[in-house]
Amino acid sequence: MVNITGKVLRILPFRELKVANENKKVIDLIIADEFDYKRVSFWDEKAELVIRGEIKAGDVLRIENARVPEESKKSGEKRANAGKYTRITKISSNIAALRHANFLNLTVLAVARPEKEQVCIAGIGENGEWIRPQGVYENDIVTAGMPNFKNLCISKIYVDAWRGRRPRKEDRFFIYSEGVKRELNEEEKREFLERNVDAPVDSVFKSGRSLGLIKPRILQVYEEKATKKKEGKSHEQYIRFNFKDSSGRIYRRWSCRCSAFYKTWNDLKSKHRWTYGLRMLKYLRKNDTYLAIGLTYTDYGGDRLEYGAYPLIVGVHVVPTRA
Question: Is the overall model pTM greater than 0.90, yes or no?
Fold first, then answer.
């Protein structure tokens, strides 16, 4: 058993699990003191405290007699369970959560549309390494009206090793974001994109990475409606790209997941009902267009696997062409 005192930084979505043929309510909370965090699972009546709003993000809690799962002891994962015999008390204390913990300044290149409540976020850290925070949910994107992630902006985030199934090279467990610290100006955006652009698609995915940035020639961009066969999809509208990369190879029907690009597309569609597709293509070709690309897991279920997985466009970045 362990005792934990810390500030509630995040409340993850409610879930229901079947344990020994019983349905159990579970809500995970990210709780941190000044040095470190714990992911604490609140079970049954403890979960009800969160559901009823008696425990909220920002509260400081003292948790007594929480249990650490055996698998977490072996793996080093920072998890604990708050169940029937756990005592939880709200206390008045000023905790500067994670003040002494290592953080990362992430320049964001992908904020995807939500899929099953989760959002794909990806970017490049100060050392040039691609990072994909795992376990980011819709309610993590904006906190108290302020964005935590925005394309070509720098976010201060805390991450840990990803110990989930099927880890990819760039995957990290998302702990917390202190929000967008700064947006790059136009010259900084261009310089950052040029500095981090990869050559052809092969140079990304055949090197063992599952994220990269390319500067292709856009051949076609079009909208496709979801069909009933696409089970598990969260959206009815999908945008696809055909493009030629720097090697001259043509890639077709790559699905776009970039949230900001969907907004731009739909705004153009509302203004130019009959010509929006041609206008978008002209806009992408007139300017310098960069695509952040990524691979899903190999068991995603797609029928057009490339590089052993299902490739996506997770970020679309357009800067004016220099005269």
Answer: yes
